[in-house]
Amino acid sequence: MVRYLKDLLEEICCDVAADFSGWEYKKGAFRKPIPNGEMLIDGGFSFTKTDTPIRPGVQIEHKPSMKLFKKIVGYWHPSSFLTFDAVADFSGKFKKEWNNAAIVLDKSTLLSSAPNAERLSHKFIDVSDAQTVIRCMLEDGLDMLSNYFVTASEDELLLNLPPKYLPKFSHDSPPGLRGSLGIAACIAHIYAGDFEFLNWYASEDCKTVVPKRTAELEKIFSALPELEKEYKIR
User: Fold this and answer.
1) Full domain range(s) for residue 87
2) Angle, helix 180-191 to helix 63-73, in steps of 10 degrees
3) How much is the pTM?
4) What is the pLDDT of residues 63-80, one digit of tens each?
5) DSSP state for residue 91 in the 8-state scheme
6) Which end of the chain lies in a sparser environment, N or C, as judged by fewer CB atoms within 10 Å?
């Protein structure tokens, strides 16, 4: 029976998850329940039969505020996410060379069949070596969730979005608020009863490198009467 990379890697991920209380691997990510949602540690996998990239990150999915986001803005979006390579003030066990590498079914055959491939050997991880990589990814993901997200209660989680970190890239300023992430943070705060964050984010006081999504902000402001009636008294 031919075994594809996805099957082998999912077995590895399930085995690793079993060593961490409350965590399981399903639907392509490590997941742990939180009130009304899940925390995720996601490898960024995108499988072919023989390979997948690995670009890890952590993600918060608070289902009620995501549902509110979908109702107002029109598409699904996580409450927050943060990739490992976006953070400058974190150093863990997951090696820099592993990020954006490829996990492959047979590294030796791949390298022998491609001219000059040996110089790129560090960008390929054989699936037989993947357990160490996945374990380091999960451990670093746990540390990032602990360092940058407040998960003591549902409201504290939402009111402390976006995560506070030192961004590695100049376009990620203010951190965690570029593009759709800024909209998601506004809606998370609204769900928790805080409308001041929206006003700050939409104002000139909040200067973003990536232009704000003004059309989506307008959708939120158009819905404000209904939102204030439903959420401001929570």
Assistant:
1) 5-231
2) 120
3) 0.92
4) 999 999 999 999 999 999
5) -
6) N
